[in-house]
Amino acid sequence: MRSVDSMQRTSDEVTKGLAMFIQTEENFVQVNQFIETITIQLSQVLTNAKKIAQNSQDVKQDMQSFTQITEQNRNVIQTIAEAIEEQLNAMEEITAIAEILEASMEELEQQITRFQLKEGEKNVRNK
């Protein structure tokens, strides 16, 4: 009986060991599937991170272009402002010259009027 009991216990231990082996194998399969799932998800995260990095680079380049265009526009506006200031100065000079010419014309008209009066007086005296 002892040998039958011993064989039974051995058989039970082998069965338990086999069950543990099968369970361990199933656990490893699940771990492997979990690792594969994580690998796929990490790959997707990496792909998305690369897209974000590229989009960030594109935004940076767009901002640099925007800054460059803004600087060019600022320079153009500065040039226009300088040209307007030069034109304003020229107009002020023209206005000053026109005022001088007007004063000269008024003086000339007064002299012509005096000359005409003197000529008229001479003509009246000579008659």
Q: Helical element count? A: 1
**Mean pLDDT, as a whole number?**
92
> What is the number of domains?
1
**What is the 3D shape?**
rod-shaped
Question: What's the helix-strand series?
Answer: H
Structural class: mainly alpha
Percent in strands: under 5%
Unreliable stretches (pLDDT < 50, length at least 5) are none
Distance between the termini: 183 Å
Radius of gyration: 54 Å
How can the largest sheet be summarized?
A: none
User: How many DSSP-defined strands?
Assistant: 0
Percent in helix? over 70%
Explain this structure to me?
This protein has 127 residues and is an all-alpha fold. It has one domain. It contains one helix and no strands. It has one helix at residues 2-126. The longest helix is centred in the middle third of the chain and has 125 residues, at 2-126. Keywords: Coiled coil. Residues 91-118 form a coiled coil.
Could you give a short description of this structure?
Keywords: Coiled coil. The chain has 127 residues and is mostly helical.
